[in-house]
Each structure stands twice: as C-alpha cells, then as structure tokens.
Amino acid sequence: MSTKNVDVVLVGGGIMSATLGIMLKQLQPDWSILAFERLSDVALESSNPWNNAGTGHAALAELNYMPEAPDGSLETSRAVNINEQFQVSRQFWSSLVSRGVLPEPGSFINPTPHMTFVRGEANVDYLRRRWELLKDEPLFAGIEFSDDPSVIYRWAPLLIRDREKNERIAATRVVGGTDVDFGSLTHQLFDHLVRNGAELKLETEVQKLKKQKDGSWDVSVRELVGTTPYTVNAKFVFVGAGGHALPLLQKSGIPEIKGFGGFPISGMFFRTDNQAVVSQHDAKVYGKAAVGAPPMSVPHLDTRVVDGQSSLLFGPYAGFSPKFLKTGSWLDLPASVRPHNLWPMLAVARDNIDLMKYLIGELLASKKKRLAALREFMPTADEKDWYLITAGQRVQVMKKDAKRGGVLQFGTEVITAADGSISGLLGASPGASTAVPIMIDLLKRCFPTRYPEWEKALSTMIPSFGTTLNSDRKRTKRELEATAEALQLTR
C-alpha cells in the first residue's frame, strides 16, 4: 500500500465534480486536484446527454416548479429562483469562454425555445394564470401565451398537425431558451483541468473513506484493470458520484448522512434521428405530469443537439430498478438500508402509494401505450421513426421528517460534514443546470476561512454574484444579452 497526498479529491467524473474542480483551479491554482471515475471515461452516467432527463432547466417551461396549490393559487418564487440559479451557471460558462477555458460555445450550448403545452379546459386555465404571473417577472420577460392552434402551429407544427380541431389546447413559449449538452461540457472542463495540472484516474473505483486524526481523509481506491489497491490522503473530498454518492457517504461515517436514503427511478425515452421529422421541431416542449407521477417524469418532446447533430426525444417513461447507477449493482438499494434510515424509507413508502401505482403501471406499459403517449403530443408520430433508449438512473432523496417520519424529496441535497472536510451531492433535478450555484454554496460551507478571499474573483466571473437579477429589469436584460452574446446564443 502506498499513500499519495493531495489537497482535493473529486469522486466521480460528472458535471458536479468538473464544475467544482474548475472553480477551485480558478480560485486556488496552487492546490493539487485528483479525480477518480470508475468508468472508462467521464460523463458516462447522469451527465451524458442521452442519460440526462432534462437540459437547460430554467423553469421557463417546467410546470413542476410552479405547482397549483390546493386552493388554486399560484406562486412564482420557486420558478424565479431556479431561473436565477441557471443564469449564474450561464454567467460562469460565459466567463470560462472569455478566458479560453471553454473553446467553442456551440459544442455544449445552443439556442432552443422552451415551450409548455397543455390539453383540456382546466389545464388551459392553469397555464394562462401561470403566464399572467410570470410575464411581469424580469427573468421571464417575453414569455408568450396562446390558445390559438394556428399560432401554436407556427411555434411547433408537430404539436398541431392532425390534431382534433375541437380539442382545447394552450401553449407558452420563451424564445431565449437553451439546450445544454452536459456531456460535452464535462469533457471540456476536465480537459482543461488535466492540461493545468490536475490528475484524472479512469477505471478507478473509490472503495472506502476514512477520516484521520488531523481532519484529512484516506481515500482507498482500486484500479478496475489492476490488482493492487492504494490510498490517497486528501485535505478535502467531494463525492459527486451520482447515485453512488449515498453509499460512499454512508461508508465515510459522518453523522450528517444519518437518516438519508435513496429511491432509484429508471426510465426510457423514444428517440428519433430522422431529419425529416427532426427538422420540423425546434423546441423543448413540456407537458403536465400525470396524477401520482414524480416531477422528473413530466412528459416532454425535446430537441437535443449532440455532437452537432439534432435529434428529438420524447418521454421519459418511468420505471424501477434497484440500481443506483445505470452501470450499478442490483444490490444497491438493499445495501443502502441502515437502522437510521429504515423508518424514513418505510414512511416514504407509506405516503407515496400513488407513486408506487404509477411506477407499476409504467413498468407494465406496452409499446403501444407508450406510443399513444407520444401521439398525445405529436399526433402524426410514426412508430418506424422512433426507437427506445434507456435513460440514466435518478436516485431521489429520502430523509427524516419530524411530522411524517420521512419524506421523498424531488431535488438536490448537499451533505457536508460539520468541519467541511467532506461534502457530497444527493438527488436529481434540476441538478446539472444549477451546478454552479450549488458549488458556490459548497465553497462557502466547506471553506469558510478561504471564501471571503475568493468572493472578489467569483464576482468577476459571475456579475450577479451575491445579488439577484430578477429585482432589476434593466440589469436582467443587460446580463441576459451579455451571456447570450458570449455564448453565441443569438439567432
């Protein structure tokens, strides 16, 4: 056994580790960084564009960020907050482009309108009321609403062609939406890190995390193509291993992970690369989730640009697998059960019968039923143009709750040790789109003595750092235009 000493260990080769690594390299270039990824390349799990259930989340079209309350009221704060976070990410990427860290913006981000499409009188009424509230928010300036099929046809003809003429429909559109290829972005960030002194070890699995008396961590790893395990000692460890973050944090023994569990949800998409179909649709179109469906299962007909090639995805069709990663183990879920999280997990099962029924229904759904769901969005969909692909695993957070015993949380959760020496990320959506503000919050929590020194540098990279854009209409317009120009998003 040999031991190597480094300042920072990043566990996992996804967008979260890449974002934190590039931030630390900009803020503290003298620190040594070592990243471990168990697969043969980075961005092969949740950050891969074909595994990622949604890209460019900015709450422009996703209805789950602005749900209707039991009394019928609507509230904009969460949608505005998600948009604020995405703008922080955009500003950071813009800065990296200007610094030459990211070479060609079009390789990872492209302009794509974001739309919402609903059917039925009640949903049309809801969407109209949502639009009436959002159109006065600076970050949502320019959002359009229509219940006129001829207008919606101009926006997205595949939604209207061959649809019943008497069906009540409505849509909103924001032209300034984006499509983000987080796989490409992750590769480019890691390429820069490696060129500037960081180390990346592929096909290397972190097996154990053990805290030392001096507050550092011994990280035990095994090369999957080798035979001799070894140990790395790190002053700080970030566990950005997707679904595998939960078991690794459990192995670390930090008390902050107690009471947390994970509920894995798998899924599939219909995909078409037929350019005769793809060329007729240029938008991310979100619908409304079915009753009992998790927010991450909101149906959407989605333009994707990967390696310069446009495709369409529709889904997701949710399912269940006990694996915490697409390439994980069938024992991941049962192996994660501990005495401290058993009751929260049972409480979640008790309170989410509708979700269980929904998942069972999805598992039993035939291809004909799945195609019918696509045709609710796109009536002219031809079975021969579409094929099913398997999406990445999403592990939703289950945690203790004083009133109910446990709750299922659809979002992200950062788990940080009291001394800030180790931190990890659990959960899913909005995930990658808000990676930058998530990592800024992590820096503040884990490096409280260093953080004040870094604030000036962060403010040069992120003009809205420490403030909110939505409170100033002129500033919002200026910053949105600036990032759109830097990222070459103007059409």
Automatic annotation (TrEMBL):
Enzyme class: oxidoreductase
InterPro entries given in the database record: FAD/NAD-bd_sf (IPR036188), MQO (IPR006231)
Pathway(s) annotated for this protein in UniProt: Carbohydrate metabolism; tricarboxylic acid cycle; oxaloacetate from (S)-malate (quinone route): step 1/1
Record's catalysed reaction(s): (S)-malate + a quinone = a quinol + oxaloacetate
GO molecular function, one term: L-malate dehydrogenase (quinone) activity
EC identifiers of the protein: 1.1.5.4
Requisite cofactors: FAD
Keyword Oxidoreductase: yes
SUPFAM superfamilies in the record: FAD/NAD(P)-binding domain
Keyword Flavoprotein: yes
Keywords: FAD, Flavoprotein, Oxidoreductase, Tricarboxylic acid cycle
Highest rank taxon of the organism: Bacteria
Family per record: Belongs to the MQO family.
The protein, known as: Probable malate:quinone oxidoreductase
Organism in which the protein naturally occurs: Herbiconiux gentiana
Source organism phylogeny: Bacteria, Bacillati, Actinomycetota, Actinomycetes, Micrococcales
